[in-house]
Amino acid sequence: MITTIDALQSLKPNADWVLRGDVLEWLDTNQTQPTEAELTAEVARLQAAYDAKAYARSRATAYP
């Protein structure tokens, strides 16, 4: 399952932030904080990419 953490790492690599539960504390002064809509869209995009490769992952054990 793709999380907000995955989305943050994808959108803003090497940014400084802390996620406490559902509360994001943005610590980075060089990068801007992504909006909630950007995070939601990135979670959906990453999940779709992961889901699209489900067949390949399930067949990987049959063909080492």
Look at the helices and sheets and give the structural class.
alpha+beta
**Cα end-to-end separation:** 25 Å
Order of helices and strands: HEEHH
Radius of gyration: 15 Å
Q: Return the average pLDDT rounded to an integer.
A: 95
Oligomeric nature of the chains:
single chain
Q: What gross morphology would you assign?
A: elongated
Strand order of the largest sheet: 1-2
Helix content: 40-55%
What low-confidence regions span 5 or more consecutive residues with pLDDT below 50?
none
What's the main sheet like? 2 strands, antiparallel
Count of individual helical segments = 3
Strand residue content: 5-15%
Number of strands: 2
Could you describe the 3D structure shown?
By secondary structure, the protein is an alpha+beta fold. Helices cover 50% and strands 12% of the residues. The protein has helices at 4-11, 36-52, 54-60, and strands at 17-20, 23-26. It has a two-stranded antiparallel sheet with strand order 1-2. Helix 1 (4-11) crosses helix 2 (36-52). It is elongated and about 45 Å long. The two termini are 25 Å apart.
Chart the SSEs and their pairings.
Layout: H1 4-11, E1 17-20, E2 23-26, H2 36-52, H3 54-60
Antiparallel strand pairs: 1-2
Helix pairs in contact: 1-2
Summarize the structure.
This protein is α+β, with helices and mostly antiparallel strands. The protein is built from three helices and two strands, in the order αββαα.
